[in-house]
Amino acid sequence: MADLKAKEEELKETLEKERKELKDTYAEIRKKLKSEGDRLQGELQKEYSHAREYVEKNPETGVGVALAGGLLLGFAIAKLFNR
After folding, report:
1. Considering the entire predicted model, what is its pTM?
2. Which of 5, 41, 60, 62 could form a disulfide with 55 if both were Cys (CB 3.0 to 4.6 A apart)?
3. What's the pLDDT at 32?
4. Dihedral sign from CA coordinates of 8, 13, 14, 16
5. CB neighbours of 55 closer than 8 A, spacing ≥ 6?
6. Domain residues of the chain, as ranges?
7. How many Å separate Cα 29 from the centre of its chain?
């Protein structure tokens, strides 16, 4: 009976240790993902700013690219709905 109690305590300790390690790993992964997300958001904002500047300097090109993109998107959506 004492042996069974010892095994039970050993299992409880092992489970608690594993749970703590998983919790720590989860917190570390969340921290890394938040950091990466913040970095990507900064890059996207920078690229968006560059694109806006380009379109302001070259409005004809901006309209042409928007038109071409709209047409391509329209054709793709039409293909999807015609199946």
Report:
1. 0.55
2. 62
3. 96
4. positive
5. 61, 62
6. 2-58
7. 12
